[in-house]
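ingest -> validate -> predict -> emit
validate: passed (alphabet ok, no gaps, 344 aa)
predict: started
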Amino acid sequence: MPESYRVAILGATGAVGVELLKLLESRNFPIADLKLLASPRSAGTKLKFRGETLQVEALTDHAFEQVDLVFTSAGGSVSKQWAPKAVAAGAVVIDNSSAFRMDPHVPLVVPEVNPEAAAGHSGVIANPNCTTILMSLAVWPLHQIQPLQRMVVSTYQSASGAGARAMAEVEQQTRDILGGKEPQVEIFPYPLAFNLFPHNSALNQQGYCEEEMKMVNETRKIFSSPNLRITATCVRVPVLRAHSEAVNLEFGSPFEVSKAREILSQAPGVKLVEDWQANYFPMPMEASGQDAVLVGRIRQDISHPCGLELWLSGDQIRKGAALNAVQIAELLKARRWLAVPTPA
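emit:
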C-alpha cells in the first residue's frame, strides 16, 4: 500500500498554488488529506482536486496541525512568519519564496542538479528563483563535463513571474491600447503591453537589481561554486507566460557545439528544439504548459574560442516554480527524507 501524506498549500489561490494543485493531481502524488490555505480575503474560495471541491481556509495558528508537508507560495514575508510554525508543528516546508534561499542552513534544490542537498534539510527546503531553475537545467549538464569559468545571461521574463494579477493587467492593457485608451498600471510600474523594461526589483549600489543578484547568488549555491563568475540582465517583456533566456558560457577550453548538443539532447528536464533551416528555436508560446525547458540555438561564440551561446524558454509557473516544488516532494518521498505519518 503506498505511503500517503497530509499536505497543505499556503497561497493556494495564486497562480503557483493553482498549478501545484494540477500537478499534485496529474502526477498522482500520494495525498491522504489536502488543506488549502490563503489570506482571509481568499478564504471561502472553492477549488477542484481529484473530482472534489475543496474550500480554501484562512491561515491560523493551528493550520499546520496534523500536516506532514507544506508548499508555501505566498511571498517572502508570509513564509518567514509561517514556515517556522509549520516546522514546529512537525511538517516539512517546501518554500517557493526568496525568504530562505540564501540561508546557509536551508538547502536550495533543483532535483535534476543537486538532489543530495535535500538530505540535509532541517524542515525547510527552498525552491530557487524561476530564472535560476530554468537556466540551471540547461547549464548544469555542460558544467559537469567541463567546468564553467564565466556566464553572461540576459532574461526575457513574462508577466506570469509577477502572478495572476500581473497577467490580467497585461491582457487589459493590450485591450486598452488596441481600443485607443491609455493603459493603466497597478502591478507593474509601467505598461508592459507593447513595451518592455528592465526588471523593476530594487537596485543595489552596483546597479544590479534583486532579480539579477538572485541568479548570481542562487546559481553559485546550487552549483556549489561560490566563485563562479556570473552576470545577468533581467528584462520584463510583454509575454503572458514562460520566460526566455540568452545564455553565454565561457569554459577553460573549447567546447564542441556538437558535443553540447548531444549532452543537452539527453539531459533530464530539457528538450532540444532546433531547426536551423527553418530558423526555428525555443519560443515561450510553445514552452507554456510544458514540463521541459526548451533549449536550442546552440552555437560557437565567435568572440571567444572557449565560448558557447544558447537560447532557452521555460514555463515560469510550471518548472520555474510549482513543478520544481512537487519534484522536491517526490524526491523526499523516494529517498525517505520526508517523514511518514504515524498510522492512526
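The longest strand covers residues 148-157.
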